[in-house]
Amino acid sequence: MVGEEGAFVLGWDEVLTEEELSVALKVLCMSEEEFKEYKEQDGWEDDSEEEENSTLSNEALSRLKTPCKKLLYDSVLLTLESYGADLKAEQDLLNNKEAYEKLSRREQQALHVRYGQKRILHQLLELVQ
């Protein structure tokens, strides 16, 4: 369901792996009875029209049903916990020119990537709160 990476890809404006996230949320938020029916039918009948008309933009994420929002919120918190430092610490390092310049070029690039990832995750937290 999630693909080889085992992760969903989020951008600033929308979910880039929207089909995978949409299916995962549907399945994970099902009742036991709904899941049994889903398994018996080998998935949903053709709801491709619904899927085509529903992109997971940031606006759409903020309108998800409460159980799906809670699942995403908790997942984002777990992901943020896996980082060594929080967003503020990364921002402070970026703003401290002396400390930043002591980092190797590779460490600087990694810092920018981590900071961007954390900003996107914090944005998602706000959307699903």
Automatic annotation (TrEMBL):
Q: Which InterPro entries match?
A: Rubisco_LSMT_subst-bd, Rubisco_LSMT_subst-bd_sf
- Keywords, sorted A to Z: Methyltransferase, Nucleus, S-adenosyl-L-methionine, Transferase
- Residue ranges with Acidic residues bias: 43-53
Keyword Nucleus listed? yes
Q: Which Gene3D superfamilies match?
A: Rubisco LSMT, substrate-binding domain
A Pfam family (short name) is: Rubis-subs-bind
* Localization: Nucleus
Give the Rubisco LSMT substrate-binding domain ranges: 4-121
MF GO annotations: methyltransferase activity
GO-annotated cellular components: nucleus
Q: Map out region (Disordered) in residue numbers.
A: 39-58
Which top-rank group of organisms is this from? Eukaryota
GO biological process annotations for this chain's record?
Answer: methylation
Q: What is the name listed in the Swiss-Prot or TrEMBL entry for this protein?
A: N-lysine methyltransferase SETD6
- Species source reads Toxostoma redivivum
Gene name? Setd6
